[in-house]
Design brief:
The protein has 346 residues and is of the alpha+beta class. It folds into two domains: 234 residues, Endonuclease/exonuclease/phosphatase (Deoxyribonuclease I, Chain A, 4-Layer Sandwich); 93 residues, no CATH class. The protein is built from nine helices and 16 strands. It has a seven-stranded mixed beta sheet with strand order 3-4-2-1-16-15-11, covered by helices on one side. A six-stranded mixed beta sheet has the order 5-6-7-8-14-10. Helix 3 runs parallel beside helix 4 and helix 8 packs antiparallel against helix 9.
């Protein structure tokens, strides 16, 4: 799942359009959230040009006569649209993610600057979340708020802002949201002359989201076309194709291993061309070796965990000068055996 969020400070001309289209293509985004479009209307053609594809759906929030306008777009090959909700400072998209077969709720946020208006927005989002229980949640965008004083630099924190920090964190905690780990630069907004900077943009997700995409992180991009940095949400999972056949080093320590492999290999009666026959026989051998491994060596993951715990216990004793010479030898032997357990059965 790859999502892009950016306070674009107005769609402007071709430069911003080309930037967004390139970012979407390079990242392989399936959903895009943009804040501060600065437009009272948006055409289908404009959205298609932004994405570089016409197989997309889109929701536009015109804000207050263009001020605070927002746009959410998604690719139709990735989502089935269910419905949406628009309010002051947000677009809530509800859809079905086709690959994971999971219902998702993504709220694009552009928070106002005034604290009371922020609190009203947070309350409205909280009520929406309560009404949509069976869903994985992602709430992202420009929150115009920080979570601690270290997320601002070059700006004096007043008492009112300390109250804002407290209320923002309460909103996150009360809704059981978690902020994704951040990769890249610390701040997401910069004053033009660089004298002030803040982390105003972020990504909050529910536990259900992390259960489906546990490796999700927010990647802060270089600042190019706005005073805000784009954020890319992605869960990087490498697809290496079919799992390869692997042996375990410890198997070679068993005197019967080679004879077992030879006996099993010759026993498989596969009728096919040479390449397919070899592939099928490897599959059969893999299954037989998994059974043999458990019978002879036991479950390697359990064995590895036990050895690691033994080493941890011995290290703690050594820290307290309570380790005898014979026990040190025991720890040394455990450390020698550990590499043989590096590859668990597949």
């Amino acid at each position: 799942m790859i999502i892009i969020s950016l306070n674009i400070r107005g769609l402007g001309g071709g430069t911003k359009l080309r930037y967004m289209r390139k970012l979407i293509a390079n990242e392989g985004a399936v959903l895009v959230c943009m804040q501060e479009i600065k437009s009272t209307s948006l055409t289908e053609t404009k959205c298609f040009d932004l994405w570089g594809d016409n197989n997309i759906g889109w929701i536009f929030n015109e804000g207050d006569d263009g001020a605070g306008s927002m746009l959410t777009m998604w690719h139709k090959e990735a989502f089935t649209y269910i419905n949406h909700q628009i309010g002051k400072g947000y677009i809530a998209f509800f859809g079905h993610h086709l690959k994971s077969k999971k219902n998702v709720s993504v709220i694009n946020v552009y928070s106002p600057c005034i604290l009371n208006e922020k609190k009203s927005l947070w309350e409205e989002i909280s009520n929406i979340k309560i009404s949509k229980q069976n869903s994985a949640w992602c709430i992202l965008g420009d929150f115009n708020a920080v979570r601690n004083v270290n997320e601002r630099k070059g700006i004096n924190i007043r008492n009112s802002q300390e109250n804002e920090i407290k209320n923002f964190n309460l909103f996150i905690e009360n809704n059981l949201l978690l902020e994704l780990p951040s990769v890249g630069r610390k701040y997401t907004w910069y004053r033009a002359n660089g004298s002030a900077k803040s982390r105003l943009d972020r990504v909050l997700v529910s536990e259900e989201w992390l259960q489906e995409w546990p490796l999700s992180k927010q990647y802060t991009q270089p600042r190019e076309i706005s005073d805000h940095c784009a954020i890319v949400v992605k869960s990087v999972v490498k697809d290496w194709g079919p799992k390869p056949f692997r042996s375990i080093d410890a198997w070679l320590l068993d005197g019967d291993f080679k004879n077992l492999v030879k006996e099993k290999w010759n026993s498989y009666n596969v009728q096919s061309d040479d390449i397919r026959k070899f592939k099928e026989k490897l599959k059969l051998l893999k299954a037989d070796l998994k059974i043999w491994n458990k019978e002879v060596f036991g479950h390697l993951e359990t064995s590895k965990n036990k050895i690691l715990q033994d080493i941890e216990d011995l290290d703690n004793k050594d820290d307290d000068n309570m380790l005898e010479d014979m026990t040190r030898l025991e720890r040394y032997n455990s450390l020698l055996f550990l590499p043989f357990l590096s590859f668990l059965p597949v």
